């Protein structure tokens, strides 16, 4: 996602890149590419320090180098190896957008969000053993959310939440509820919440929520997720930190997990040592896994995230 954002921002920096390239009017395509990478790319990445951590620069530059070289090979058609339209910023912008589309870099759109959600539904999916109704994991934050933002409703996913760990019924109910509400109110916004087995039910619903149904979901908030996968940008601990970013949940191995196009609007919260989502430091359903409902940090994190996602 960070690389995607940099590429989008680069579109706004093409005029300054044009000036740099004009300093090398007679250079070959490869020489101009090297110059652009060394001078322009490093400057732009430094200017965009708010997007990516400094540790990411090396890998990002390496990938951008490869793609910029492809761009030059695409557009240098004559013996002078000059970028067509070098005097025309609009043409340069068009060339670059075409390049992004051809290389698949423009396929992932920015996070779809309405300017503001005046009517929204929070779909709350409880964990194993919780009785049908609202999950204890979200009671406090949902009370705060609906107090801060009018127009909110809570839907409690209908499924067994049994000890056999089969969340399929819950997944189908989440999908059904989204589509059912949208049929009568196409402008409705949704937040998906899931605790433990409920998190698995929610994650499994994501790839099946496409088109308008997917766009209507403005945020996903998970706690104690058994499908928590190491390394995802949406992985945080209960303080919003990274202590559980690089750990796996009980069911994380193999396929599935949070789809790439959902990561930017998801928080997958795992308390350090929770044996369901952090098998590196914990084992099974332990004290940490049961901590979320009464953990002030988790409830504040959820409230802040959801309010932001719904506020546009």
TrEMBL record:
A Pfam family annotated for this UniProt entry: Cutinase
Keyword hit for Hydrolase: yes
Swiss-Prot/TrEMBL keywords: Disulfide bond, Hydrolase
Matches recorded under Gene3D superfamilies: alpha/beta hydrolase
GO molecular function: carboxylic ester hydrolase activity
Signal peptide as annotated in the record: none
Keyword match Disulfide bond: yes
Matches recorded under SMART domains: Cutinase (SM01110)
Residue runs in coiled coils: none
Highest rank taxon of the organism: Eukaryota
Name of the protein this chain belongs to: Cutinase
Organism: Gibberella intermedia
Higher taxonomy: Eukaryota, Fungi, Dikarya, Ascomycota, Pezizomycotina
